[in-house]
Amino acid sequence: MAWFKEDEALLHWLNHLRFASLYYALGDGHPGISRLFAHLQRPPVMDEILDWEHLVENLHKTGASKAE
User: Fold this and answer.
1) How far apart are CA 44 and CA 28, in angstroms?
2) How far apart are the C-alpha atoms of 36 and 63, rounded to whole Å?
3) Closest by Cα among 47, 45, 66, 44 to 55
4) Is the dihedral of CA 50, 39, 12, 9 positive or negative?
5) Model pTM?
6) Cα 9 from Cα 7, distance rounded (Å)
7) SS3 letters for the chain?
8) What percentage of the chain exceeds 70 in pLDDT?
C-alpha cells in the first residue's frame, strides 16, 4: 500500500503492523522519510540503508571518496 502526500494515513496503517525487534529501512535519504519515521511507533532498533544511486550521488557530503 502507498499514500502520496498522506502521511497521517500512512502512519495510521504502519502503526497497526507488528515490527520485528530489528528491521531495515531502505530509502533515498530524503529528510521527509526521517521525519516520518520519527512519528512512527516502532521498535527503537533500526538500520537505515541508502540505495546505491543516492549513496554515490551524496558521497561528497561525508568527506569520503569513492576509493574508500
Assistant:
1) 21
2) 27
3) 66
4) negative
5) 0.48
6) 6
7) CCCCCCHHHHHHHHCCCCCCCCEEEEECCCHHHHHHHHCCCCCCCEEEEECHHHHHHHHHHHCCCCCC
8) 84
Direct distance between the N- and C-terminal alpha carbons of the chain, in angstroms, rounded to an integer: 38
Record the cell numbers describing residue 1, joined without a space.
500500500
- In the numeric block, the cell 520485528 is attached to 20
The length of the chain in residues reads 68
Instruction: Say yes or no to pLDDT of 42 above 70.
Output: no
- For residue 15 the three cell numbers come to 502503526
